[in-house]
Amino acid sequence: MTEIPKPAVVLVQPQMGENIGAAARAMRNFALEEMRLVAPRDGWPNPRAEAMASGAGVVLEAATLHDDTAGAVADLTHVYATTARPREMIKPVMTPEAAVADARARLARGERVGFLFGPERSGLANEDVLLAHTVVTVPANPQFPSLNLAQCVLLTSYEWGRQSSEAPLERFDPGPAGPATRRMVLHLLDRLEGELDDTGFFHPPEKRPAMSTNLRNLFLRAPLTDAEVRTLHGVVRALAEKRRRAP
Amino acid sequence: MTEIPKPAVVLVQPQMGENIGAAARAMRNFALEEMRLVAPRDGWPNPRAEAMASGAGVVLEAATLHDDTAGAVADLTHVYATTARPREMIKPVMTPEAAVADARARLARGERVGFLFGPERSGLANEDVLLAHTVVTVPANPQFPSLNLAQCVLLTSYEWGRQSSEAPLERFDPGPAGPATRRMVLHLLDRLEGELDDTGFFHPPEKRPAMSTNLRNLFLRAPLTDAEVRTLHGVVRALAEKRRRAP
User: Fold this and answer.
1) How many CB atoms lie within 10 A of CB B113?
2) CA of A204 vs chain B CAs: smallest distance (Å)
3) At residue B194, does pLDDT exceed 90?
């Protein structure tokens, strides 16, 4: 996946410095970089924002300050307004998932995009939503949809990270030992069955094939490491020797 | 999509009551219901958890209390351990997205599953991870991966909600007025072009087809409501009358 530009996060009239800091952390968690602040209530810079941001201070340092929302989105070609509740204004409504996919497509073809987030208490005013092309609403439980500012920024940033990630959906990390080869596991099974044959475990004899299949399935379906197979060899040896020493 | 059972959220030795309350809110935001608490530091019930949970108190009221992690997961058939950092123990590692998809498949075939979350300060202990089948790690920015307990529960719950949602990815809500029909928009365009013909707007005449196409594309690609088309009719009439009245 080629590197594409990233969306701006526009906080409109944020009230608490702590929430600006928490939003910066959420952005940095998923590698969003560009914060724009519209008329923060307590002025700017804000020591409480800096204290909360801690390791994400780099986002605050690069943040730009704007007098009004129109100024903050002036250079953008597509604006998304995050709102919790339906609006009377007529706009397409997207989930964060769909909005981020839409934003990625726009960014890839050279557009500049941004997501608006409203003040903690009231959310975005209608005149701010009017500046947006698209409304974004998190599909939360209708019986309890309330998400705070930093949580909304976190979920949007997470969607950005999720859709940008090159990570495979699942991986098995065998650690420094490395994964066991099929031959190693089969050798272990042969040894185990040999010892079990000596004990009379496979009884009656006509059940031996089914019992062997069960045993082999058990060990062959697990992702085993080299070291684990060596450990199991030791277990088989130890049990077998104990039995041989028994009277 | 048929209703399937839901995963349990297991908080292992949570420290701050506020975080238990915030986790309950995050669960309720995305309709997760079953919280299990393993030896919370400050005992249980915890007034601080209740104060923070507010509208999500129903999750706390239904929460079960357990002495140890083994007891909390005893009835589960598949356990996911959320950890921020790689572990020496050998387990498959999944993103929240893949883990929730895996959990949904297991739940749909009758399994019972749960997600473990560790204490705020230290995360899950190795002996807790050992009880899990699968490790879940949020694919955060490697330069700033730190997420707190409630944020981890929120992202996992969000994935549950996102993958459970029947909501379409995009919808256009035309409001009470309803969307405009194609006929209404075309009638508006005919009227507009008629008025513009009178003004000499389409000049030179050989450019008329291209100019008309541009104008029609502009209005036909936008999702217009009934009320908006009526408004535009009014705009055309007003401008035309002003022109007629002009000397």
Assistant:
1) 24
2) 32
3) no
One-character DSSP codes across A119-139: -TTT---HHHHTT-SEEE---
Over residues B49-63, mean pLDDT? 96
Q: d(Cα A68, Cα B235) in Å, to the nearest integer?
A: 29
Is some CB atom of chain B closer than 8 A to the CB atom of A92? yes
CA dihedral over A106, A108, A114, A117, signed as positive or negative: positive
Dihedral of CA atoms B212, B200, B191, B243 in degrees, nearest 10, equals 140
The number of beta carbons lying within 10 Å of the beta carbon of residue A54 is 12
Judge: B169–A141 Cβ closer than 8 Å, yes or no.
Answer: no
- Start-to-end C-alpha separation, chain A: 66
3-state secondary structure of B173: coil
Phi-psi category of residue A110: left, alpha or beta, with phi > 0 → left and psi -120 to 50 → alpha: left
| DSSP β-bridge partners for residue B37 | B11, B65
Query: A162, B95: Cβ pair inside 8 Å?
Result: yes
**Mind listing the pLDDT tens digit for each residue in B196-212?**
888 888 888 898 888 88
pTM: 0.82
